[in-house]
Amino acid sequence: MITSLVSLRVQQLVFASSTSSLKLTRTMTTKVHVIAETGFGTGTNELYDRARPSYPTECLSYIRQVSKSTAPLNIVEIGAGTGIFSRALLAHSEWATSIGTLRAIEPSDGMCDVWRKTVDDSRSSIVKGTFDDTGVEDGWADLIIIAQAYHWCPDYGKASAEFSRILKKDGAVVFIWNLEDRDGAGWVAQLRDCVEAHKKGTPQFRLGLWRKTFSTPEYTSLFHPQEEAEWAYHLIASEQIVTDRAQSKSYIAVLPPDEKAKVLENVKDILERGDGRVWINKEKGTYQYPYKTYIVVSRKK
Fold it and tell me: What is the pTM assigned to this prediction?
């Protein structure tokens, strides 16, 4: 539940574009990062689904305005995970009558299993696939949405070509991420430092490696410069919520039991100090959890 909407920033970033045309061919790359494969493997997904936050209603409204197509819309969600975003989208008032078909794509068997258990809507389905091999037919999608996943993409050029292939003319890709706001409270900055020390070279969103997408020949030939928006707000936190969320990180999930126990002990110490904590209900142990949501929109040429 969002307790406050603090800011909205929309920025248009312009990169050099290429006028060269690219021949779009489907080339299958099934490579999945080893930490993602094991950290989000079978047995970890129920915790992930329980611990990770949903998405602000304001952000879902913003995404609805991205598509210029007439409803009902064909939506492809790549990296759909356990269905957190799928459920939010299908239930949102502005999307309720807008979605014709939602086709979810996910490489993890375990996550697919949880998605099928938690997403109950006749307009939606899920199949295995990757960023550059979705299995969707040419020109089918009005909109592609990738929630909390694109930073795992192994080949930005091939992904951009696949996105363009399956999009209709004037279609768009929406990338969306939630991230704890380290500037929002001292305890959040300490928490992130504690947890992120174990990232083991994984391509996390905060590192911005995914931004290389926008300078690939495939992207500059096929898409307009990206548009970006950012929201800052507060969720509700408790010791259990924060601890579970830390454990749901892929690189924490794969730690040996003794190392994971040490991380959780450090998290508990951080929460006990509570630097900069703002209580919502001290008796119930709930307080503000500063967060940000980032959206990047790429429109097909």
Answer: 0.86
